[in-house]
Specification:
The complex is a heterodimer of chains A (319) and B (377).
Chain A (H helix, E strand, L loop, with lengths): L1 H26 L7 H23 L5 H27 L4 H27 L7 E2 L26 H19 L1 H11 L1 H6 L4 H28 L1 E2 L7 H11 L4 H24 L7 H5 L1 H13 L19
Antiparallel strand pairs in A: 1-2
Chain B lengths: L1 H12 L3 H23 L4 H11 L14 H27 L7 H17 L5 H30 L3 H24 L17 E7 L2 E6 L1 H18 L1 H11 L1 H6 L4 H27 L11 H11 L4 H25 L5 H14 L1 H23 L1
Antiparallel strand pairs in B: 1-2
Helix pairs in contact in B: 1-15, 2-14, 3-13, 4-8, 4-11, 4-12, 4-13, 5-6, 5-7, 5-11, 6-11, 8-9, 8-13, 9-11, 12-13, 12-14, 13-14
The chains are: A mainly alpha (319), B mainly alpha (377).
Chain lengths: 319, 377
């Protein structure tokens, strides 16, 4: 039972940081289906740096993880500029732009991975082997029965993500920038009239969204997959978007939803082992988070309040 | 230079603007891909030629026994059929303002159902093939209708529901294939009977072995059917009205919810057809837990074809050349064949800037007109 909580949290945290990325972009009025692409590209840059550093700093150095995380954020942010350019500058259809960015990310990273592998170690493989980051246990609280699992065998990135979540919650709801950003998604004309720069705010929001997704991506690469390969495009970016919609575009509610997803995933997996089913049945249990999303969306979608101006290109002349 | 830019602007602002935007997108893509290949130290001209050679459009240097240019061309058509159908599926949804991102999932579920019920049966050729097509239409249509229903009844955005369905279908079919229909050697599903396959294999034409895809006939016919529906029928007009302005359509008395469900169902039908032509034609086996990249490639085809059914015939030829010719190109110039997806991605990128290009062209021309008027004064 504790393992359900441990695994659930380590899945929910990267998902949450990606969902917050999506919230930033959508709250500023840019529909963002590109989370999947951002996280993959961020993870690619992060693991590329990690592979290069591992050559000099040794295989087991944990400092590599933190440097890789920083670079993943930078990479995701830079790649997000493409989405921002298409949506804000070129006024392309935002849903299509999201799909374009995703397709390009899959193609670009898998091509560049095999290119980089031939350059670095002469193999044609499309994988960067990263290994799993070390875990730690918080001494006292982890002994609490059941819920103590949340504090057992934690990845260090979970702490970083929690700090980031609190910071970005503060930025969104308690600062001037955050208020401008939310206003851009509801009524950009009002922001313009009040002297704000709608385009700049949206650019900032999309870049933040890319950086956060990149962090989420590298965390998945370092925990769930233990490598970087095209299999990082497992649809977790879309799951993050579903969490955002289900969480009604609020950071607090989305955090709860992500936790539910995480527990559903790990719980299903443990249930499969507990019931003594052969491993071929695990596919059915892997399906659970998606089925759960569908069912929950049926009950909660009606009351949703998406940002009013999301999906529309900003047109100064419009009233 | 200045004059030239303005000819381009006039082309992009004229009557056939959409066609020229697509042509420009293709040219820019070739340019970008060429520069990339040059940077890797390869000759882009040889690479582009081998793309065409791999698709049977240009003769190769030598052929294996019993095969020739025609067999490559028939392979190419075999691949193009599901691509065209899938892009039509996207277009039908897109015209009604819906993004059917779940084409890959709808393809998989219909292909899987047809394989299990007909592909493994002992039916004779004609009824088997008819049943395969019918099952493709039914299963695809029902899946599409479900998405439309969820959108209309529960306000679930179709992008989210189709993506969730994609993963559910992928895991579900993967589970059944792995447990019941797996071929131990290849780890994919057992191949279906030749009677049910929509591609006739080993047909001798002009002394070479060819594959005769029935799917390409279905695909081209469907392209004209879709064109007819959107250009000449009330139903098609209402779909377009719903796509352009939902509130206005409702005000003029169109039953919006009904039209949303029907357009998703129609889109699903086409995706289902694409599924059976892919899984019981192009390949005749299913790799478990894998969604085909064609689901997304079809979106680039639709965009490049300016979401017109006839345009998408040409667009699917172009995109299929890159995808199908990649293997031969990869062996000729020694570049990883993932470059084909990369080129498709770049193509999609330029195609999505189409509106901006047109807007720019219009601005340039408008500025000229203003200047001329000022000079007259």
């Amino acid at each position: 039972m504790t393992k359900v909580f441990t695994d659930g949290l380590s899945f929910a945290m990267p998902l949450l940081i990606m969902a917050i990325g999506a919230i930033y972009s959508e709250k500023s009025g840019v529909t963002n289906l590109a989370i999947e692409g951002f996280q993959g590209f961020g993870a690619f840059i992060g693991s590329l740096i990690a592979i290069i550093l591992m050559g000099t700093m040794g295989q087991s150095s944990q400092a590599v993880l933190y440097i890789a995380m920083a670079f993943a954020a930078v990479g995701g942010g830079i790649y997000a500029c493409l989405h921002a350019l298409l949506c804000i500058r070129f006024k392309a259809n935002q849903v299509i732009s999201g799909v374009v960015v995703n397709i390009l990310a899959v193609a670009l990273t898998s091509f560049c991975t095999s290119l980089a592998n031939t350059k670095i170690n002469g193999t044609m493989s499309n994988k960067f082997i990263l290994g799993v980051s070390t875990r730690f246990t918080i001494p006292v609280i982890s002994r609490i029965p059941w819920v103590g699992g949340l504090f057992k065998n934690m990845y260090p990135f979970e702490i970083i993500i929690i700090v980031l979540v609190i910071f970005f919650w503060y930025l969104m709801y308690k600062t001037k920038f955050g208020m401008r950003l939310r206003a851009c998604g509801e009524n950009p004309q009002a922001v313009d009239a009040a002297g704000g720069d709608v385009e700049k705010t949206r650019w900032a929001a999309v870049i933040i969204s890319g950086a956060l997704s990149g962090i989420g991506g590298i965390c998945f690469a370092y925990s769930l997959l233990a490598n970087f390969s095209p299999s990082i495009y497992m649809g977790y970016g879309y799951l993050a978007i579903a969490a955002m919609i289900f969480g009604n575009w609020g950071i607090g509610t989305t955090a709860i939803v992500c936790m539910i997803f995480g527990l559903a995933k790990s719980g299903g997996y443990q249930l499969c082992i507990f019931m003594g089913l052969p491993s071929s049945y695990s596919d059915l249990f892997l399906m659970l988070p998606y089925v759960l999303t569908m069912i929950l969306l049926i009950f909660f979608s009606k009351k949703n309040h998406p940002p009013k101006a999301a999906g529309e290109a900003w047109d100064k002349g419009k009233r | 230079m200045k004059k030239k830019r303005h000819t381009l602007a006039h082309l992009l602002d004229g009557r056939h603007a959409s066609v020229w935007v697509s042509v420009l997108a293709v040219l820019l893509t070739l340019l970008t891909a060429g520069v990339m290949l040059l940077l890797m130290g390869k000759n882009p001209l040889i690479a582009f030629r081998s793309f065409l050679q791999g698709c049977g459009m240009l003769p190769k240097a030598n052929y294996g026994g019993g095969s020739g240019m025609l067999s490559d061309l028939s392979d190419f058509l075999n691949y193009m059929a599901p691509m065209l159908l899938a892009s039509l599926a996207f277009i039908v949804g897109f015209k009604a303002g819906l993004f059917n991102i779940g084409i890959a999932g709808q393809m998989l579920i219909s292909g899987f159902t047809a394989t299990v019920f007909i592909g493994y049966s002992k039916l004779s050729a004609l009824p088997a093939r008819i049943l395969v097509v019918v099952i493709g239409i039914l299963v695809g249509g029902l899946t599409g209708a479900l998405v439309g229903f969820l959108k209309y009844q529960f306000n679930i955005h179709e992008v989210v529901s189709t993506i969730m369905l994609n993963y559910i279908i992928s895991y579900l079919t993967g589970f059944f294939i792995n447990n019941h229909y797996v071929d131990m050697m290849t780890r994919t599903s057992r191949i279906c009977s030749a009677n049910a396959r929509l591609t006739l294999t080993n047909v001798m034409i002009a002394g070479v072995k060819c594959k005769l895809p029935i799917g390409i006939l279905i695909a081209v016919i469907m392209a004209f059917v879709v064109k007819f529906i959107f250009d000449k029928t009330v139903f098609g007009f209402e779909l377009k009205a719903v796509g352009q302005n939902r509130k206005c359509a409702k005000y003029t008395g169109v039953h919006v919810g009904n039209r949303i469900i029907l357009s998703m169902a129609f889109s699903g039908v086409l995706a289902g057809l694409a599924g059976v032509t892919y899984y019981l034609g192009y390949t005749n086996t299913i790799i478990p837990k894998t969604l085909v990249g064609m689901g997304y490639d079809s979106i680039s085809v639709a965009l490049l074809g300016n979401s017109s059914p006839i345009g998408s015939i040409f667009a699917s030829i172009i995109v299929s050349i890159f995808q199908q010719g990649a293997n031969y190109m990869s062996s000729m110039v020694n570049v990883a064949k993932e470059i084909a997806s990369l080129i498709t991605g770049i193509l999609l990128l330029y195609a999505s800037c189409g509106t901006y290009m047109k807007m720019r062209a219009h601005m340039v021309i408008q500025r000229d007109i203003d200047r001329e008027e000022e000079e007259k004064k």
